[in-house]
Amino acid sequence: MSALGPLATRMGDNTLILGHRLSEWCGQAPALEEDIALANTALDLIGQTQMWLGLAAEIAGEGKTADDLAMRRDVWDFRNLLLVERPNVDFAYTTTRQFLFDRWHLPMLDALSRSSEPRVAAIAAKAVKEATYHAERSAELVVALGDGTAESHDRMQAALDALWPYTGEMFIGDDIDAELASEGIAPAPESLRDGWEEAVRTFLADATLSVPDSDFAHRGGRSGARHSEHLGHLLTQMQWLQRAYPDATW
Amino acid sequence: MYAQLVKSEAAEETEQDRAFQERIDRKEKIEPKDWMPEGYRKTLIRQIGQHAHSEIVGQLPEGNWITRAPTLERKAILLAKVQDEAGHGLYLYCAAETLGISRDEMTEMLLDGRMKYSSIFNYPTLTWADMGAVGWLVDGAAIMNQVPLQRTSYGPYARAMVRICKEESFHQRQGFDIMMKMAQGTTAQKKMAQDALDRFWFPSLMMFGPSDKDSVHSAQSMAWKIKMNTNDELRQKFVDQTVPQAEYLGLTVPDPDLRWNEETGHYDFTEPDWSEFMDVIKGNGPCNADRIEARKKAWDDGAWVREGLMAHAEKRRAARVAAQ
User: Fold this and answer.
1) What predicted TM-score, i.e. pTM, was given to this entire model?
2) Could you tell me the CATH superfamily of domain B15-323?
3) B74 and A CB contact within 8 Å
4) Where are chain B's structural domains?
5) I need a labelling partner for B202 at 20 to 30 A (CA). Which of A133, A164, B193, B263 fits?
6) Which letter does DSSP use for residue A166 in this model?
7) What residue ranges are annotated as transmembrane (chain A) (predicted)?
8) What is the pLDDT of residue B219?
9) Three-state SS at A127
10) What is the ipTM of this complex?
11) Please, which residues have CB within 8 angstroms of residue A99's CB and are 6 or more apart in sequence?
12) Which residues of B, range 240-299, sit inside 8 Å of A by Cβ?
C-alpha cells in the first residue's frame, strides 16, 4: 500500500512540528496553569509523533526509526501543514493556531480510528482521546480571550486574520488522498471541510470574532513543494545535536 | 535547599507560644486555621515561596534544552519533567496561599527581588549532558532536603512534599540515565559528561546553604520543624551518596582532596567557594539577570491573557446572575 507511508508521515510531521512549537513556550506562558497545559499538549503530540513516524519508518524499512525521520530529514521531506509551522508570535497566535488545527485533527483522528488499516486505526484510537481534550481546551480559550477585554479581542482577531489563509490546505486532496479514501484507509480531506467550518464558526461567534471573508489558501506544506522559511529554522534547532554528533546515541 | 538561606523570625515567649511549641514537639501538624506565631507564618511564607519560585525559575535552565533534545523520547521525558516542576510550583504556591499571601503577590516579590530562589538556577546549561547533571545532582540534592520535609510541622507544606518527592525520584533517575548514556558514549559525549560534572559539582554543594557555623537562621527553624536537618548534615549525606555514583559512571569529581575517611565513615571533601555563593545570592551569578528577565517577560507579556480570562469569567458570572 504505497499511500500508507505518506499518510503516516503527514500525520506525524504535523504533530512533531506543532509539538515542537508548543514546547518553545516552556517556562514562558502567561500563567502557571497555561504553562502546564501547553507542555501537556506538546507531550501528547510528541507521543503521537513517535507512533506515526514509527509507522512511517516501519514502512520505509532499511532499519529506519522515528528519530531518523524526525532528526535527519531536510525541509523538502517534511509533509506537515503550513499552519503548524507558523511561529508562536504571542499567546493569541499560539491559541488560534491550536484551535484551527484541533478542530481538524479531532474529526480526522475520529475517522482514522475506523480505518480499514488496523495499524492506523490503533494509533488514531489512542490519539483521539488526547485530541478531544486539546480541542475542548483551545476552543474554551478562544471563546474566553475573544470575549475578554478589548485588547484580548483585538489580539485574537489579528491572529485569526493572519492564520486563516493557512487553514484551506487541510481540505485540499491529492492523488495520495484519493488512493487512501478509495481503500477506506483515510477520509478524503474535502469531506472534513463542512464539519470543521461549522464548528469553527460556532466557537468564533461565541468569541465575538469575525470570520475573515477570504477563502484564499496557502499550500505546499503537506505536499512538501513549498514550506515557509520558518521550518528551516525550527529544524536547525531541533536537529542540531543529531547533525553535529552523527555517531552518538543518546 | 531550594529554600536556602531563609531568614527566620525570632520567637517570642508568651503562653500561647509555649503551647504552640509543645504541639510541634508532640509532632502534631499545624493546619492553616490553627493559631501560629507571626514569626512562624512569615518564615514559612518565605521558605515555601522561595521553594515555589525555585521550581518555576528551575524550569528555565532545562527548558533551554527542550527544543534541542536529541531524540523524541528524550524530548518527551524532558517535557514531562519540566511540566512536573511547574506542577510542583503550583502545589507550593497553594500551600503558601494558606498562610495568607497570594500567588500574584509572591510573583511580584520574586520579580522585584524581595523574594529569592535557589542559587543553582543561576548557572547556565551549556550542553545536553547538563540535562543529565541537573537531574542527577540538582534533583538529587533537592530530594535530600525534601524527603525529611515530608515530616515538616506545617500540614499543607508536608503534604505538598509527599507528592513532590514521588516525582523528584523519577527526575533523578532520568538524569542519571542521561549521564550514563553520555559517559558510555563517544569521546565527545564523555567530555560533555565530565564537563557537566565539573561545572555543577560545587554549585550543587552550595544548594544546601552555608556551613552550620555560619547559618544564622537554622536554630529557630529547626525548633519549629520547618527545617529538619542542618545544612552540613545534608551536604555530607549528598556527597556520600553521589561520589560512588560518579565512580560508577567513570567520571571524576572535581575535588583533589576528596577521600574516604575510615574513621568518620564519610567522605572528606572541599567546601565550595562561599564567596562565589554570596555573589550569586546577591544577583551576580552567571544567569541571575537572564532568569529574572525571562520571568518578567513572561509575566508582562501574559498580562493581557490573564486580564482577558478574568474579564470573560466575570461576564459569564454576571450573565448567570442575570438569568437567575
Assistant:
1) 0.95
2) Ferritin, core subunit, four-helix bundle (1.20.1260.10)
3) yes
4) 15-323
5) B263
6) G
7) none
8) 84
9) helix
10) 0.96
11) A138, A139, A141, A142, A200, A203
12) 294, 297-298
- A81 in Cβ contact with A169 (< 8 Å): yes
CB contacts of B185 in chain A (<8 Å) are: 248-250
Parse chain A into domains and list their residue ranges: 4-244
Consecutive 10-residue averages of pLDDT for chain A (250 residues): 92 98 96 96 98 97 96 98 98 98 98 98 98 98 98 98 98 98 98 98 98 95 97 98 96
C-alpha cell at position B195? 564537563
As given in the structure block, the three cell numbers for residue B312 are 470573560
Q: Looking at the complex, does the CB of residue A26 fall below 8 Å from at least one CB of chain B?
A: yes
3-state secondary structure of A159: helix
Q: What is the pLDDT of residues A201-246, one digit of tens each?
A: 999 999 999 999 999 999 999 999 999 999 999 999 999 999 999 9
Smallest CA–CA distance, residue A209 to chain B, in Å, is 14
Give the separation between CA B300 and CA A30, rounded to whole angstroms.
Answer: 8
Q: In this complex, how many residue pairs, one in chain A and one in chain B, have their CB atoms less than 8 Å apart? A: 144
Task: State the Rg of chain A over Cα.
Answer: 18
Q: Tell me which residues of chain A, numbers 170 to 209, contact chain B at a CB-CB cutoff of 8 Å.
A: none
- CATH of the domain spanning A4-244, picked from 3.40.50.300, 1.20.1260.10, 1.10.8.80, 1.10.10.10: 1.20.1260.10
Q: Where are the beta strands (DSSP E) in A23-93?
A: none
